[in-house]
Amino acid sequence: MTSDAGALLGACHFPPAGTAVDLAVSGGPDSVGLLLLGVDAGLAVTVHHVDHHLRETSGLDAGFVEALGAQFGVDVVVHDVRVAPGANLEARARAQRRAVLPPGAMTGHTMDDLAETVLLNLLRGAGVDGLSPMVNDPTKPLRDVRRRDLHAMVADRGITARYDETNDSPAFWRNRVRHELLPLAGAIAERDVVPIIARQAELVYDERHWLDELAHDERGLDEVDCRELRDWPRARLRRWLRARLRDAEDHPPSAAEVERAIRVVVGDAAAAELAGGRRLSRHHQFLRLG
């Protein structure tokens, strides 16, 4: 374990010194570490804090982040959002957060977060895209930094970061993966599995982009005869449909939606319902999206 900022900076993927960047800082040790390393890297930092008002102490988090900004001479923007209680709270809060943060805002996700996300996506049935998250992502500059090292650096600077008690709740899958699944995997393997999972994500990322090159075809859904599509290797067809069926907000279709679309292509179904009220059908051997 290291808390040396120089060593940690060497593992970061920051742009050149002087670059203007937006940093998402919750007040927790990961995002505080992101702020410290961003300042050390000589970046022109603007901090963004999102207050979801989900905890009674959230106002204290905002005040803490504003004080940090004053300490390091950086601007702080606080975004107030309201997330109604109910199902999928974590996902809805994440969506609200993304909606108010500037495009390209950097987050404090570490290699440990990458490994957790790979396992979460695996449990949810993700394909190769879900098994290679954060790799080469400019908004995740700490993806090669270990969480324990980042926390040690923050503590060595004499900063007591805020603590979100929901990080201990077993109600959230990520917490169970972090506190139960990863330690169990490490005990079985008798080694630290986080770097192994991160390396696998990098390999899958390379394979995924090779698949994208193989599947590349500029023609639209209504320009390729389904009889031609049926002769394509299934992996190529799946990648091509995934690219063509992205929604208005550029979100890719789920694996289940792609499989339903394939059934339309091969003639096992006349139409398929997609997210956003869309419907994929086949007319005279060509696909239509309505």
Highlighted features:
single chain, 290 residues, mainly alpha, Rossmann fold, 3-stranded parallel sheet, 3-stranded antiparallel sheet, 11 helices, 47% helix, 11% strand, elongated
Structure description:
The protein is mainly α. It has three domains: 5-110 and 145-168, HUPs (Rossmann fold, 3-Layer(aba) Sandwich), CATH 3.40.50; 111-133 and 172-214, no CATH class; 216-289. The protein contains eleven helices and six strands. A three-stranded parallel sheet has the order 1-2-3, covered by helices on one side. α2 (29-40) links the parallel β1 and β2 (44-51). α2 crosses α6. The radius of gyration is 22 Å and the shape is elongated. It starts with a helix and ends with a strand.
Order of helices and strands: HEHEHEHHHHHHHHEEE
Shape: elongated
| Poorly predicted runs of 5 or more residues | none
Provide the CATH top-level class of the largest domain.
Answer: Alpha Beta
Q: Supply the number of structural domains.
A: 3
The CATH H-level superfamily of the largest domain is: HUPs
Distance between the termini: 54 Å
Estimated helix fraction: 40-55%
Quick one: biggest sheet? 3 strands, parallel
In DSSP terms (H or I, runs of 4 or more residues), the helix count works out at: 11
Mean pLDDT: 91
The total beta strand count reads 6
Global Rg? 22 Å
Per CATH, which architecture of the largest domain?
3-Layer(aba) Sandwich
Question: Which secondary-structure class do the elements indicate?
Answer: mainly alpha
CATH topology call of the largest domain: Rossmann fold
Within the largest sheet, what's the order of strands? 1-2-3
